[in-house]
Amino acid sequence: MEAAQALDALLRDYHAKLAPDLDEAWLEAEREHLHQQVIGAMRALMSCHDEYEERKLATLDAIRALDPTNEALYREIIRTQARLGRHDAIDDTLDLLKRELDKLDERPSSEILQLARSLRSQQYER
Predict the structure, then answer these.
(1) 74 touches 97 (CB < 8 A)
(2) Confidence class of residue 22 from pLDDT cuts 50, 70 and 90?
(3) Residue 28 class from Cβ within 10 Å (0-12 exposed, 13-18 middle, 19+ buried)?
(4) What's the pTM value of the predicted model, to 2 decimals?
C-alpha cells in the first residue's frame, strides 16, 4: 500500500520540469537527471499494480506523457491494452507513437508494428 501511495504522490506532484521559471544552462542536466529518476521510480512503484491492469494502464499512460518517445513504454501499454481486451485502443496508441516520433523525423520500429499486428489479431482468435 505504501508503494501505491508513493506512486500516486509522484503522479500528482511531478510536472516534468524542475524550476520551470529558471532558464539557466547548468540546470538542464539536473532537470534531465531528475526526470529520469522520477520515471524510474514510477516504473518501479508500478509493479505494485501488476495485478490491477486498469491501474497499471493509467500509470503507464502517465509515464508516457513524461517520456513520449519511449517505444518500450508503448509496447508495454499495448500489451496491457490487449490483456484488458482493448484491442481497438492499440491502433490509437500506435498512432500516438507515430505522431511523437514524427516530431523527431523518426518512425516506429518493425518490432512494435509486428507486436501491434499480433495483438490485434488475437482479438479475432477468441
Answers:
(1) yes
(2) confident
(3) exposed
(4) 0.72
